[in-house]
Specification:
The structure holds 2 protein chains of 2 kinds. By secondary structure, chain A is mostly helical. Chain A contains 11 helices and no strands. The two termini of chain A are about 10 Å apart. Chain B has a domain of about 140 residues: Rossmann fold (3-Layer(aba) Sandwich). In chain B, the strands form 2 sheets. A 6-stranded mixed sheet of chain B has the order 5-6-7-3-8-9, sandwiched between helices. Chain B has a 3-stranded antiparallel sheet with strand order 2-1-4, with helices on one face. The longest helix of chain B is centred in the C-terminal third of the chain and has 28 residues. Classes of the chains: A mainly alpha, B alpha/beta. Chains A and B meet through helix 8 and helix 9 of A and strand 5 and helix 3 of B.
Chain lengths: ~280, ~270
């Protein structure tokens, strides 16, 4: 489990790899945040200038400033906020169902040889299956409403969570289980107070993977069937060649991705206390 | 409160099927008694089943031959299983819990109210000179401090019998010396009943009233040796004339067994 964001760690590596004689002259350019945001700004300015200078049709490539205006308009009308709320609800409600069910199932699979043997076949069959291929079948069964969206979201997240929970529980130091039993823990208490907490870093690795898949699946499902939600808005805007709106929705999705990643980085830091070394 | 029970091994043996399928005998026909208020050390070569004996006494493993009995010290009437707590070589502290949460883990399981278990845990930590580290996590402590937390976690349960499974085996030599003396003082002060599994002859003599010397696998008891050196003991006790004779005797018994264990390991591999 990493205990700091990947970006900062890689700069640590870069710093360690740099020859000691190379003293930093410009301190601003050593700050990863300045470099990160600065390069984004540079790309945007370049884009804006290129679009103005070449006079490219805004149907193909709108200028960043036009996209920002479209983004504000969409929020001002209130439609985009509603779409965002729907998408967030679908992602996280489904994801939390997957989290609870997946962790319970994972502990069960890891601690019971029989359940493990049964589950092994099903997981081997279902885990590698691209969940997006289940959309037609799920629509036949569940229609295109809320239950469908929650199911597709939960399906995306549950397998990485189950697999990582099983892994985490199986990797638990047997000495900790013995110590808990020595202090009077029942089998259930061992599960709840030793196996579960010791598996948390691994479970969180599964959460990271699973949440990513949930986001992809919900947006994809919205593009196929939705009238509401970011995926639907993206698709409908594309249909009528509202290219600025397409970009605006993409920006919202990218911002959502950044937010989720940064929160996960913070949780990773907090999880540092699980390390024994 | 009834007097704590004597733990008796009556012809205890443990056999298991090895990977090849052939039965392997780990422990063979052990007869020994662990008396209340006394420290009994079990010493022997690697792989002789010392720690397995602790697991059997604790009830985590059932012997495949013979039996384990608990009897009253006077009269030998059957008694209840005494309460036991273990101190582990690898410490086995829960890394996600703070020092104080580790110490009160057992009390929490028994349903003791939070305020009371917190107070008892603080007292247990103070008894081993570890105040001011309550909110630290195990990884923030040195090995010696971690094992003192392990000791506090076992002692706070107020066990009838303290099981010490090579408690200082993972520590550096100097820390080990200091903790050995601390434990000796603690045992002498409180009259704890303890079973100590160790590789170290010095540690066994420093702490124990009785030393069981084990043979190489299959583990049998080669000798039961009483340690009559006066208490309180410290590492300075090594200057006593009787100490040298005792050390020589145990080492003489162990040397051949250690050689046999090494030959056995090579034959196994």
């Amino acid at each position: 489990m990493s205990d700091q964001p990947i970006v900062e760690r890689s700069t640590d590596i870069a710093r360690a790899a740099a020859p000691p004689a190379a003293k930093p002259s410009a301190s601003l350019l050593d700050d990863p945040r300045v470099l990160g945001w600065g390069s984004v700004a540079l790309v945007l300015v370049g884009w804006e200038l290129t679009a103005i200078l070449t006079g490219v049709n805004r149907l193909y490539l709108p200028r960043p400033t036009q996209i920002v205006v479209a983004l504000f308009d969409m929020f001002a009308e209130g439609r985009l906020a509603v779409d965002l709320a729907y998408t967030l609800y679908r992602i996280f409600a489904g994801f939390f169902i997957a989290l609870v069910v997946g962790v319970v199932l994972g502990i069960w699979i890891a601690t019971s040889r029989r359940v493990g043997a049964v589950a092994d076949m099903f997981i081997a069959a279902l885990y590698p299956l691209p969940k997006i291929t289940l959309i037609p079948l799920l629509i036949i069964w569940l229609g295109t409403g809320g239950p469908f969206m929650l199911t597709i979201s939960a399906l995306g997240a549950i397998f990485p969570i189950i697999i990582n929970t099983v892994l985490g529980v199986r990797q638990c130091d047997p000495g900790l289980v013995l110590a808990a039993r020595d202090l009077g823990a029942s089998q259930r208490q061992v599960m709840r107070l030793v196996l579960l907490p010791s598996a948390i870093p691994s479970i969180f690795a599964g959460v990271r993977l699973g949440l990513g898949v949930s986001i992809i699946l919900v947006v994809a499902a919205e593009m196929v069937v939705g009238k509401l939600g970011l995926g639907a808005r993206l698709y409908l805007a594309g249909q009528v060649l509202e290219t600025e709106q397409v970009f605006a929705v993409l920006i919202v999705l990218a911002a959502l991705g950044i937010l989720v990643t940064k929160i996960q980085d913070q949780i990773d830091i907090w999880l540092g206390r699980w390390r024994l070394a | 409160m009834p007097a704590p029970a004597v733990i008796e091994f009556e012809g205890v043996g443990l056999a298991y099927a090895a990977q090849s399928g052939a039965p392997t005998i780990a422990l063979d026909d052990l007869h020994c008694r662990f008396l209340p208020g006394k420290v009994t050390a079990i010493i022997g070569p690697s792989g002789c089943g010392k720690s397995t004996m602790l697991q059997i006494a604790r009830g985590f493993l059932d012997p495949t031959a013979g039996r384990l009995r608990f009897v009253e010290a006077a009269g030998r009437a059957p008694a209840a299983r005494p309460a036991m707590s273990t101190v582990w070589q690898a410490f086995n502290l829960f890394p996600w819990l703070t020092v104080i949460e580790n110490v009160e883990f057992g009390l929490r399981l028994s349903g003791m109210p939070a305020a009371e278990r917190r107070a008892r845990s603080k007292k247990a930590l103070a008894a081993i000179d570890l105040t001011g580290f309550d909110e630290k996590y195990p990884r923030q402590l040195s090995g010696g401090m971690r094992q003192r937390v392990g000791l506090a976690r076992a002692l706070v349960m107020e066990p009838d019998v303290l099981l010490l499974d090579e408690p200082f085996g993972a520590l550096d030599a100097q820390t080990r010396l200091v903790l050995q003396e601390q434990l000796a003082a603690l045992v002498e002060r409180s009259g704890t009943t303890a079973i100590l599994v160790t590789h170290s002859i010095e540690e066994a003599i420093l702490l124990a009233d009785t030393i069981l010397v084990m043979t190489a696998r299959p583990g049998r008891i080669a000798a039961e040796i009483a340690v009559d050196l006066p208490r309180p003991r410290s590492h300075g006790t090594a200057k006593e004339p009787a100490y040298g004779a005792l050390f020589e005797r145990i080492y003489g018994l162990l040397r051949d067994e250690v050689m046999r264990a090494m030959v056995g390991e090579r034959a196994d591999s």
